[in-house]
Amino acid sequence: MKVALERDWCIGAGNCALTAPAVFDQDPDDAVVVLLDESPPETERAAVEQAIGRCPAAVIRLLS
Amino acid sequence: MLLPVPEEEVRPFDPPPVYAELRKGPQVVRVACPTGIDAWLVSDYAGVREVLGDGRRFSTRPGQAAHVLSGFGAGDGEPVEGSFAQTDGPEHIRIRRNFAPQVSHARRLAELRPMVERITDEAITRMLASPQPYLLHSQFSTAITTAVIAELIGVPPDRHHLLHDAATALFTTSTKPGELRTALEPLWRYLYELIATRRARPGDDVLSRMIELSADSDRPLTDAELTAMNGALLIAGFDTTASMITYGLVCLWNTPGQWERLCAEPGLAVTATEELVRYLAAGTGLLRQAVEDTQVHGQPIRAGDYVVVALQSGNRDPGLHADGDTFDVARKPGPHLGFGHGAHACVGQQIARLELTAVLRALARRVPALHPAVPLEQLEWKKDSVVRGPVELPVRWS
C-alpha cells in the first residue's frame, strides 16, 4: 500500500489524524497533514480508506 | 418546483419525502428558493459531494445560505474582508490554516477536553439543583456551548449576550439585507477592542494564538480578518452545537431503545454523536454558484447559476447506507455530509464532536432518568432559522 498527499489543498480539518493516527499527523503551526508512513502496513488499510472518505478536502490518495 | 423545506411538526427527524424520489432521478432539478433566487437542487450523496468538493467549479461567494437567508442578499455587494466562508481558493486556505491549529489539531483537542468536560459537569450539577421542569435548550445546551466557545476565545460572561444577539440576527431567515450588518455591529465592535487588547497583552486563548501565529507569516492577519473569523467562530460555534444537543436528545428519546442503549454503554457517545450529525444534518442545505459552464449528473449548469445541495437528503442516500433512514446510536462512523464537505467543511467540527460527545456521555452516566416533560407533538420547532431544532425543550428527571 502506498499513500500520497496533496498538501497544498489541505484545510487542516484533522479527520485523518483522528481516524488513522499511525499514518497521519498534523503540523503544529498550520494543522496541515503530515504523512508519518508513506507505505503503511496492510493492517492500516481500512483506517486509511476511512481517512480518505472523511477528508473534506480530498487530499489523500491511495496509490496501490 | 419550490425548494423542499423541513417540516419538523410533521416528521421531526426526516427530510421531505420528495427527496427519496429525487434521489432516484433526476438528481438535479430546478427549484425556486425562499429568498427569490432560482437554483439547481442536488439531492444525492455523490452529487452533493461532487459540488461541495470542487471549489474551482462551485464558488461560495454568494454566502452559504443566501437561498434561505434574506440578510445575505445573494449576489449583491462584496463580502466583508476576512469573511472566509465567502472566499475561495488559496486565499481561503490561508485564512483557514490560521484557524485550524486552534480548533482542529488532535493534540489541541486533547488539551481542550478537560475544559469541555468541566463546563458540562457544572451544567449538569446546576440542572440537578434546579426545579422541574427545566428548560434544557436555553439553560443547558446553549449555556454549555456558549461557555465553551467564549472560554476558547476569551470572551467574559458579561459579554455572552453579544454572541446570542448576533446569532439570532444571522440565522434568522427574515433578517433583511442591511439589517444584518447593523445587528452584528455590537459584536464586531467588541471584537475589535478585544483584538487590540490581545495584541498588547497576549493570553493563552485562540485569538492570541492566531495573532501570534500569523505575525510570523508573510501576510499577517488584519484586524478585519481576525474580527470576521472570530466573530464567525463565536456565532456559528454555539448555536449550531446547542441546537444539535437539544435536537439530538429529542431524537434519542423518540427512537425506540436508543437512549437506553446509550445509558447502558455511555462509551457509545462517540458513535451517537457522529450518527446524530449524519441523521439530522441541516435540512435547509447549502448554496454554491457555478463559476464556469459545467454539469452535474449530465445536467448542464451555466456559469452564474446557483446550486443548492441537500445535505440531509444526501446522508439518507441508500448508496451511502442501505438503512440510512434508520437512526442507530451504534452505527460505525463513516463519511457523511453533516458537517458539509470540501474546503468549506465546518471549521468547528472537531470542537462540535468534543462537546456533543462530552454532553451525551455525561448525561447518560449521571442522569439516565432524564426525559422530556412534554409530548413530542407539543414541541415548537424553529421555523425561521437555518439552524433547526426545538425552540425549547422542557425536561424532567427522577
From TrEMBL, chain A:
<keyword id="KW-0411">Iron-sulfur</keyword>
<keyword id="KW-0813">Transport</keyword>
<keyword id="KW-0408">Iron</keyword>
<keyword id="KW-0003">3Fe-4S</keyword>
<dbReference type="InterPro" id="IPR051269">
    <property type="entry name" value="Fe-S_cluster_ET"/>
</dbReference>
<dbReference type="Pfam" id="PF13370">
    <property type="entry name" value="Fer4_13"/>
</dbReference>
<protein>
    <recommendedName>
        <fullName>Ferredoxin</fullName>
    </recommendedName>
</protein>
<dbReference type="GO" id="GO:0005506">
    <property type="term" value="F:iron ion binding"/>
</dbReference>
<keyword id="KW-0249">Electron transport</keyword>
<dbReference type="GO" id="GO:0051538">
    <property type="term" value="F:3 iron, 4 sulfur cluster binding"/>
</dbReference>
<keyword id="KW-0479">Metal-binding</keyword>
<dbReference type="InterPro" id="IPR001080">
    <property type="entry name" value="3Fe4S_ferredoxin"/>
</dbReference>
<comment type="function">
    <text>Ferredoxins are iron-sulfur proteins that transfer electrons in a wide variety of metabolic reactions.</text>
</comment>
<dbReference type="GO" id="GO:0009055">
    <property type="term" value="F:electron transfer activity"/>
</dbReference>
UniProtKB/TrEMBL annotation, chain B:
<keyword id="KW-0408">Iron</keyword>
<keyword id="KW-0479">Metal-binding</keyword>
<dbReference type="InterPro" id="IPR036396">
    <property type="entry name" value="Cyt_P450_sf"/>
</dbReference>
<keyword id="KW-0560">Oxidoreductase</keyword>
<keyword id="KW-0349">Heme</keyword>
<dbReference type="InterPro" id="IPR001128">
    <property type="entry name" value="Cyt_P450"/>
</dbReference>
<dbReference type="GO" id="GO:0017000">
    <property type="term" value="P:antibiotic biosynthetic process"/>
</dbReference>
<dbReference type="GO" id="GO:0020037">
    <property type="term" value="F:heme binding"/>
</dbReference>
<dbReference type="InterPro" id="IPR017972">
    <property type="entry name" value="Cyt_P450_CS"/>
</dbReference>
<dbReference type="Pfam" id="PF00067">
    <property type="entry name" value="p450"/>
</dbReference>
<dbReference type="GO" id="GO:0004497">
    <property type="term" value="F:monooxygenase activity"/>
</dbReference>
<dbReference type="InterPro" id="IPR002397">
    <property type="entry name" value="Cyt_P450_B"/>
</dbReference>
<dbReference type="GO" id="GO:0005506">
    <property type="term" value="F:iron ion binding"/>
</dbReference>
<dbReference type="GO" id="GO:0016705">
    <property type="term" value="F:oxidoreductase activity, acting on paired donors, with incorporation or reduction of molecular oxygen"/>
</dbReference>
<protein>
    <submittedName>
        <fullName>Cytochrome P450</fullName>
    </submittedName>
</protein>
<comment type="similarity">
    <text>Belongs to the cytochrome P450 family.</text>
</comment>
<keyword id="KW-0503">Monooxygenase</keyword>
